[in-house]
Structure formats: structure tokens, C-alpha cells
Amino acid sequence: MSTITAKPFRASETETPGTRIWRRFWAQPIALISVIVILFFAITAGGTAILSATGHHWPCDPNTTNLEQKLLPPSPQHWLGTDNLGRDVLSRMLHGAGISLTVGFIAVAVSLGIGLVIGAIAGYFGGLTDQILMRSVDALLCFPTFFLILTAVAILGPSLINIVVVIGLVSWTGTARLVRGEFLTLRETEYVKGARVLGQRHWEIITRHILPNAAAPILVTAVLGIPDAILTEAGLSFLGFGVQPPQATWGNIIAEGKSYLLDAWWLNLFPGLAILLAALSFYLAINALQEAAENRS
User: Which CATH superfamily is domain 43-50+76-294 in?
Assistant: First the structure.
């Protein structure tokens, strides 16, 4: 008499592709560490902004000067020391985190919106429209991005709004090229051709059929733009074209401390580490997500 052996149940057999990708992502220690660092910066920046809005500051007001306590090294009273005007470096760095993350996310949102529209139109319609739009993209790519941003900010004036807008308006070209490539491929698929036969409008085909299938690589590219925007803002602030003092950013803290490099090492070390950790965490998190998506096992 034959017996039926029950096949052992495996949770992986019921997983959706998205669930499987996230499980592989969280299984990577480097991914977990990167996300923790990003959340730490986001929570501290958000908490500092909320406290400032209510008129409170922790550990103290970042713009309060005290020349009697200038250039003090790290201590229990001032965890990260003080600057040349006696201001608490930790307080200024906490406020600077909000500036850096704001620039990163909003600038990427602006560049994503522009790149998505330009790339979708070029890739979907093709032909002369594609040629005109892509030649315009190629022309912009001939100019070094940072110097183009630097020139625009110098003309418009250094302010947070100008920096966010300029970075967003200049850095969309890579997104546009990626979106165009995805649309060129997906517009030839059977379900898109079927939608055309059924008489669906162009915008319906783009939003319902093509864009959802191209979302993953587009989002990855967008998130990769966040650390680039953070580094760009830090570079502009260091050169004096970013957010102006007394408002604190990581870049202008380093700029103010460069004259005291040998006497007050903490003015350059701590904001420099913050920039490095923030940018590196985004890069490592995206790399881990790409590896999780490409792993077919």
C-alpha cells in the first residue's frame, strides 16, 4: 500500500516578489545599519525642528554666542565643543542635519518630477520628440553639474530655496535618460500594444501600464540622488554660496572651522563625519536593495 508523503511547507513558496526582496534586504547587516543611521539623522533633525518651532532648543540655542567659551574642546558641558564665537557645535550640527536632509529630499523630488516627465514623453512617443528632448539633455550633460549649480546660485543668490530649486533643476538629466530607456523597452510589450488596440489614451497607458513597471529602477535612481544633493549643498556652503550664517549647515560649520584646523580639530571632524555617514548610508542602503532585487535564489 503506497503512502503519501506530505511535502514540507516552506514560507518562501508563498512569498510575493516584493516580500522576498525586502526579506533579503533586511537579512543584510549592512542594510540594517544603514537604515538605522538614516533614521537617526531623520529623527534627530525632525525632533530639533519641532523643538525650535516651539521656542525650545536642545542642548542650547545654536546661534547664542559666548566669546568667553570660544573654541572649547568636547566636554560634558559641550559634547562636541564650541566654535570661534562660543556657539555649541552639537546644537548647530543638529540644525544642520535638518537643512541637509531637506535639501536632499526636496531637490530629488524636483529632479524626479522633471526627469520623469521629460523621459516619459521622449521614450513613449519617440521620433522627432525623442530627438529634440534627448539632444537637450546631452547639451546639459556637457556642463559639469556642480559648476552649473554654483553659477546659478551665484546669480540668484545663496538661500535655502534657491539651492533646493537649482539642484533640482540641474540634476534631472540622469533620471530622464533612465526613464526614457525604460519606456522605450516597455512600450513594445504586448500589454501596452493591447491597450493601444483597445483605444486607451496615451496618458492612461503611461500611468497605468508603463510607469508602474518602470517604478523600481526609477525610485532607486531617485534615492541615489539624495546623497548627491547633500554633498552638493555641503560643498556650496563650504564655498560660501550655500545657506548663509548664522543659520547652521554642516558645510558652513566646516568652512568657519577651516581657519582653526590645528587649534580646534572638532570643528572639521564632527560635521565631516556627519556628511560622510549620511551620504554613505544612503549609498549602502541602495546597493543592498539592488543586490536583494537581483538575487534570484
Answer: MetI-like (1.10.3720.10)
